[in-house]
Amino acid sequence: MEIRTVKIPYADKDIIVEIRLNWVCPKCGKKRGEVTSAMYCNKETGKNGQVCHTWMNACGDIDMYPEVIEEAKNNGLNDSEILH
After folding, report:
1. Is the per-residue pLDDT at 71 higher than 80?
2. What is the 3-state secondary structure (H, E, C) of the chain?
3. Disulfide check for 55: which of 5, 33, 51, 60 has CB 3.0–4.6 Å away?
4. Left if phi > 0, otherwise alpha if psi is -120 to 50, otherwise beta: which for 14?
5. pLDDT tens-digit profile of 32-60?
6. What whole-number distance in Å separates Cα of residue 79 and Cα of residue 61?
7. Quick one: 44 exposed, middle or buried, by C-beta within 10 A (0-12, 13-18, 19+)?
8. Beta strand 15-22 with 36-40: parallel, antiparallel or unpaired?
9. Distance CA 60, CA 49 (A)
10. Roughly how many angstroms between the first and final C-alpha of the chain, as a whole number?
11. 7: which residues sit within 8 A by CB, 6+ positions away?
């Protein structure tokens, strides 16, 4: 199984975290899309200008960042101190 490292917003902590994911859609099991860079702005704090990653899955399922954080907490591929 392919594993990729991505940088995504962890809104609860207002930071960008680097996490490792199994590169399959957790909803249907098909391969996730190609990673691209995007700018992140936290609308609550106004903090912006942080680069994060995004992707579009060909299957049409959408990976929401909070769900991806939960996946990363539980997939055994990441340092738990970063995510808790």
Report:
1. yes
2. CCEEEEEEEECCCCEEEEEEEECECCCCCCECCCCEEEEECCCCCCCCCEEEEECCCCCCCCCCHHHHHHHHHHCCCCCHHHHC
3. 33
4. left
5. 999 999 988 777 666 667 899 999 999 99
6. 26
7. exposed
8. unpaired
9. 28
10. 26
11. 16, 17, 18, 19, 51, 52, 53
Q: Which residue has the higher pLDDT, 44 or 25?
A: 25
Q: How many domains does the chain have?
A: 1
List phi, psi (to 5°) of 70: -60, -40
**pTM across the whole model:** 0.86
- Asked if 59 and 44 count as a contact pair (C-beta separation under 8 A), the reply is no
Q: What mean pLDDT do residues 74-78 have?
A: 94
Give the whole-angstrom CA distance, residue 82 versus residue 13. Answer: 10
Residues in the chain: 84
